Amino acid sequence: MAKCQKSSRETQPKPHNPFPSLTTKKIPSRFTHAPPRSLTSGGGGRPPPLVRGGGLPPLREAKRVVLVRHGQSTWNAEGRIQGSSDISVLTPKGESQAETSRLMLLSDSFDACFTSPLARSRRTAEIIWADRDDDLIPDSDLREIDLYSFQGLLKNEGKERYGVIYRQWQKNAANFSIDGHYPVRELWDRAQNCWERILAHEGKSVLVVAHNAVNQALVASSLGLGTEYFRILLQSNCGASVLDFTPQAGGGPPAVCLNRLNQTPNSPVASGSSAGRKTSKRIILACQGATQNSAEIGVSGMGYAPLNMLGIIQSQKTAELLLDQKVNGILCSPQVAAFDTATTICEVQEAADCLGADCVPRYVEMKKLLELEIDDAFQTKQKSFGEIAQSGWLGSMEYKTLEELWNQSKAAWQALLNELQDDTSERILVVVGHPGINLALICRCLDLTMDYMSSFHLDDGSISVIDFPDGPKGRGVVRCTNYTAHLGRWSIPITRTMETDEEF
Question: Which end of the chain has fewer CB atoms < 10 Å from its terminal CB, N or C?
Answer without folding.
Answer: N
